[in-house]
Amino acid sequence: MSGNMMRSGMMGGGMMGASTAEMRVIRELLGNPGRIERTVRDVPGGVLAITTSDDPRVAQLLRSHVRQMRASYERDEPIRTMDPLFRELFLNRERINLQVEDILGGVRVLHTSDDPQVVALIRQHAHHFVSEAAEQGMARAMRPTPLPQGYRRPGQ
Whole-structure pTM over 0.85, yes or no? Predict the structure, then answer.
């Protein structure tokens, strides 16, 4: 499927905006849930997540994916537009700070915001999408992620 078809929404699961290269990485990661280890710790303003694999190929995919998603934020090219949590994350992308560091076997990500409502989105994403997808793979990716309890869009 061409990148243009994916961008126009011809891809299942609401992955509009993802390029062919991004989709390849996402599919490979979702196909290897048993090879991914993940720890998430809430920190002031967000989360610190460490995601690794003993498989060097999967570790490199993890690094690529995080950088691709940071670039998607920067370009304002949302993915998973059918997922309410992802829609809100991209609507609030200018309020989000994402620090990425390669580590042995994977990546460490500090995902933060100064806005408490955006912090709730970040934590929901880390705990209830990414960690679950790392464990469950494609089965989890096919389900939407609800907004955090009590969430109000910033500025409303």
Answer: yes
Write the secondary structure of the chain as one string of H (helix), E (strand) and C (coil): CCHHHHHCCCCHHHCCCCCHHHHHHHHHHHCCHHHCEEEEEEECCEEEEEEECCCHHHHHHHHHHHHHHHHHHHHCCCCCCCCHHHHHHHHCHHHCEEEEEEECCEEEEEEECCCHHHHHHHHHHHHHHHHHHHHHCHHHHCCCCCCCCCCCCCCC
Q: Return the structure tokens found at 115.
A: 């806005």
Domain ranges of the chain: 3-140
Q: Please report the pLDDT score of residue 86 as a whole number.
A: 95
Confidence of residue 9 (pLDDT cuts 50, 70, 90): very low
CA distance 15 to 85: 13
- Residue 111 has a CB neighbour count (10 Å cut-off) of 27
The Cα–Cα gap between 4 and 98 comes to 27
Q: Which two structure tokens, joined as six digits, stand for 65?
A: 């994916």
Task: Tell whether the torsion through CA atoms of 137, 87, 43 and 50 is positive or negative.
Answer: positive
Contact 17, 77 (CB under 8 A): yes
